[in-house]
Design goal:
Chains A, B: Its cofactor is pyridoxal 5'-phosphate. 2 copies of one chain form a homodimer. The first copy, chain A, is α/β, with parallel strands linked by helices. Helix content of chain A is 43%, strand content 11%. In chain A, β8 and β9 form a beta hairpin. The longest helix of chain A is centred in the last third of the chain and has 36 residues.
Chain lengths: 548, 548
Amino acid sequence: MGSDDKIVDVNFESLLRIFTVPEAPDSTLGNIEQKLSQNLNEFLREHIVAEEKPLSEIEKDFLNSAIPETPTFVSEHTQHLLDTVVSHSVHTSAPSFIGHMTSALPYFLMPLSKIMIALNQNLVKIETSKAFTPLERQVLGMLHRLIYQQGDDFYQHWMHSAEHSLGAFCSGGTIANITALWVARNNALKADGDFQGVGKEGLYHAMMHYGYKGMAVLVSERGHYSLKKAADILGIGQQNLIAVKTDSQNRICPIALEETICHLKIQNIKPFAIIGVAGTTETGSIDPLDKIADIAEREECHFHVDAAWGGATLMSNNHRYLLKGIERADSVTIDAHKQMYIPMGAGMVLFKNPSAMTSIEHHAEYILRKGSKDLGAHTLEGSRSGMAMLVYSSMHIISRPGYELLIDQSIEKAKFFANLIEQQQDFELISKPELCILTYRYVPLKTKKALAIASAKEKEELHQLLNELTKFIQKKQRENGRSFVSRTRLTPEKWGRMETNVFRVVLANPLTDKGILHSVIEEQRKIAKTSPIVLPKIETLTSTILQL
Amino acid sequence: MGSDDKIVDVNFESLLRIFTVPEAPDSTLGNIEQKLSQNLNEFLREHIVAEEKPLSEIEKDFLNSAIPETPTFVSEHTQHLLDTVVSHSVHTSAPSFIGHMTSALPYFLMPLSKIMIALNQNLVKIETSKAFTPLERQVLGMLHRLIYQQGDDFYQHWMHSAEHSLGAFCSGGTIANITALWVARNNALKADGDFQGVGKEGLYHAMMHYGYKGMAVLVSERGHYSLKKAADILGIGQQNLIAVKTDSQNRICPIALEETICHLKIQNIKPFAIIGVAGTTETGSIDPLDKIADIAEREECHFHVDAAWGGATLMSNNHRYLLKGIERADSVTIDAHKQMYIPMGAGMVLFKNPSAMTSIEHHAEYILRKGSKDLGAHTLEGSRSGMAMLVYSSMHIISRPGYELLIDQSIEKAKFFANLIEQQQDFELISKPELCILTYRYVPLKTKKALAIASAKEKEELHQLLNELTKFIQKKQRENGRSFVSRTRLTPEKWGRMETNVFRVVLANPLTDKGILHSVIEEQRKIAKTSPIVLPKIETLTSTILQL
C-alpha cells in the first residue's frame, strides 16, 4: 500500500498527507483511480437495469449508525463501495431504463466533472468562484436567450450587471419553481405606502394591508408535486394551489382556468400566479401557453412556465413551435439534468425582466455586499458548486444542432413506440406522446371487447383489476432487472375519469433502440400471463360479460 | 483526434458515440482525462490564491449569449476551460487561502467523486438510487447519533423506517435551516379542530385560527443571513426574525432572549422557534446552548441549532463539550462541505424526533407513494445527487479520530494565530477564537495610544478611517493573490458597539502552517504602509490627539 492510501495511525502527518496532491501519476491513488474507472466503465457498459436484491437485504450493509473509530485504506474502501454500493445501484444509463427522466450522460462529462470537483468553487460569492461567476451568468444568459430571444444589446446590458439577474442556478427544478413563486408572491404583495412588503412584514400583515382573504396559484391537475411544496413553504397553503381541469390530451382547459379565476376573485382570493406546464411529468403534455399568457396578462398575474422537463425542446428548431408562448412567461424553470443530459443537480429559473428578482434580493456584511456581482444575492440557496460549468461545456461540445438531433430523435422514438403499442391487440395507449413521454397499459384483447359492452359497475370492477395487473407487471419487470418502466395513475377522459394505473415511459436515452422497445412489451405480455390471481379474475369477469 | 472526441458532423451516429463508454483505456477521452488530471494537480499544488485579473477582463471571455451553432472538439474545449476557467478560478485549497469556509479537500475524494458522477443516481426515489437510499439514511443516522447519542436500539428502529426520517440531506446549510424552520412553523400551526394546519390552509388562516398577530423566530444578532431568507420565504417576514443582543464574546444574552420573548408575547406574536448558533459565520462563536434549551423548553418553542460550521466539532472528544446542550435541540443543521472537508453541496438537517418531519411530508402518484422508503417524501428539494456517498466515504477513510485531529489542530492553530496577533504592537485582535475563526485589524501603535485618550468624536473619526484602512488592506492583499483573508463588519463591545471593519480568518486548511500566518500579517503591515490617502489621514489625526 502506498503512503497516500491510508492514515495508518491517526497522526497529524498522515492527515496532512491525505490533503496533499500526489506528485507522481503512478501514485497509489492514481492506481486506485484507474481501477475504479475501469470498473465504472464496465458497469456503465452493462445493459441491465439493476441486479435484483430486495431493499431489506441491501439495507443490511448500511445498519451501523456509529462513525467508525478506525480509519480504512482507500483501496479497501473503494472495493467496499464497488461491492455494496455500485453493484446495487440503478443503471440509470442503461438503454432499457426508460422509466424516469434520469438518463445516460455524455461520456465526456466524466473527465470534465473532475474540474468541478477538484476546484471546489463556491458560487455564492466571487471571492470563492472568480471565473465561475461570469461563466454561470453566461449560462443563464444563454438559457434566457433560448427562451426570450432578446438581441445582443439586451444581453450586453444585463447579463453581467451587478444589480440585476437573468435568473438563478439551483440544485433542481423544485428550488427553481419555489424561487419563481417566491418572486411572484413578493411582487404581488410588494411595499405600498406604510406597508413594507411581504418579505419584510410577512403574509399576515400583507393580507391585512391588501385586504385579500387568500393568495392562489393556478396550475393544471397534471402540475408537478413540487408546486404543492412551494404553496406550503411560501405560506400560501396547499389548498390554494388550485388544480385546473385538463382536456383529453392532459392540457389545461383555458375556459376552466378563467372560471376558476373568476370564482377565486368572488371569494376575494388573489390569484397571483398561473403556471403553464411545458412537459408534464407524467404524460409530457404541453399546456396552451399562448392562451394562458393572454389570461395572465389580462388578470395581471405572474405567468410561470414549468419547463423543467420540456424546456430543452427549445433547442430544436423543428419542435420549438410546441412551446409557443413560453417567450411571454415572466419566469421559466428548466432542468439541465433532464433533457440536457447534465449530471444531477442542475436546475435553473429564468426571469424575463432582469429586475424581477429584486423582490427577493438579500445582502450580508461579509459577502453579497451591495454592488458586488456575487451570485448569492439572488439565489434561494447559499453555498453552491460550479455545476454551471458542465452546462457550459455541453453547450459547446454538443452545440445547439446536436441538442436538436437528440430532442428530435427522442420525439420520433416516442412516436414509433406509440404506434407499436397501438398495433398490439392486447395493449392500450393511454396518452400519446407530444414530447418523448407516453403512457399505456396491458389489456387482454377479450377484455377490451368486454369493456366496450360492460355495465358501469362491471367497467369499474374490470378497471380495478386492470389497475392491479398493471401494478403487478411493472413491479415484476423492475424486479427482473432487464428493463424498467415507471408507473403512475391518470384519470383518462376516455375512461370517464376513472383512476387508471399506467406504464409510463420516458424515451430520453439516445442508446434506446427499437429492438429494446419491442422486447419491453414482449416481456410485459409474458409477465402478465404469469399473474397468479389477478389475470384469472380478469378472465372470469371478461367471460361473464361476453357471455362466453 | 479520436472518434470519441467530437461530433464531427452533427449526425445521429456521432451523437450516439458520445453516449458510448469507450472500450479501450487509451481512448482519446482517456488521454484527455489524463492530461486534465495532470493540469489540475499542478493547479492544486500551486500555493497562490488567485492570479489577479480584474473581473471585467475575465468577463470578456463570457460575453456570448448565443448557444454555439457548431460543436467543439472535447480536447479543444478542455484546453479552453484550462485557459479561461481553471486559470482564473480561486485556489480555495491553497494553504494561504484563509478567508472563507471553503477549503482544501482530501485528495482521495477526486477518484471517489467519479462514482457519484458516473452512476448519476437520483436520490429522490429508490427506483433511481437503490443502494444509495439506505446509504444516505445511514449517513443521516451517523450524524444524528453524533448529535443525539441515542442507543443502537433507537437507530435500528428508526434509521430505515419508511414512515420516518432522522433528517434530510440538502444542497447546503441554507436549505437545511429553511427545512428546520418549515417543520417548526408547521408543527406550531398544526391541524386543530376544523383547521387543517398551515401547510394546507396557509399562514393567514393559521393566524386567524390561532389568534396570533405574528410568528417570530429568535436568533442572536450574529445569526446567518440565510435565516432572513427563511423568514421571508416562509411568510413570517424578515422583521419577525428577531436579532437578540450578544455579549462581548458574540454569544446570545439569555436574559435579552427572555426579555424579547416576553415582549413578543405581550404583542400576541408567537415565538415559535429559537435558534442557537454553534459557530457563528463571522466570529465562530458558540451560543450557550444549554441555557437556550431551558428557555425553549419552558416556552414550548422549537429549538434549532445552526451548527452548519461548528457541528463537526462534535467529532472531537476533546472539544465536544463546547457544544454542550446541542443534544437538546429539536433540529440541527450541519454542513459536511465545511469542517468535514466534502465538496460543495453537502448540507444536512437532523431532527431529534423521527416523527418531526411528518408535518412537511408529501407524496405523488408516480413516486413517493405512501409506505415507500423514497427519501424525497421528506426533503424540500426534489431530484438530488448521491453526494451522501462522499460523506460516507470520508467517515470511513478518515474515521472519527481522524476528524478529531483535524478539528483539534484547527482550533490550536487559531489560538496560535490569536496569540501572534496580540504580540504585534500594530494589530488588534477583535474576536478571540472559540473554534478556528478569529477577527482582527491593523491599528498603528501610535493610533492605539491615541484611541485610548481620544474624545468621543475623535474616536469615531479614527474608527471611520481605520475601517477604510482595513478595507484597503484586505482588497489589496486579495489582489496581490498570495493570500486571502475575508472582511466583515462587527460591533465590538470594547469599541462601544461602533461598526468596525475587521479581517476575518478561517483556519480550516490542515496545510496552513505557522510560517504562512506570519507572512499574512507581514504582508498586511506592508500594504498598510502603502495606503496613499487613509494612512496619512490616520497619522495626522493621531498626532493631533497625542499633541505631537
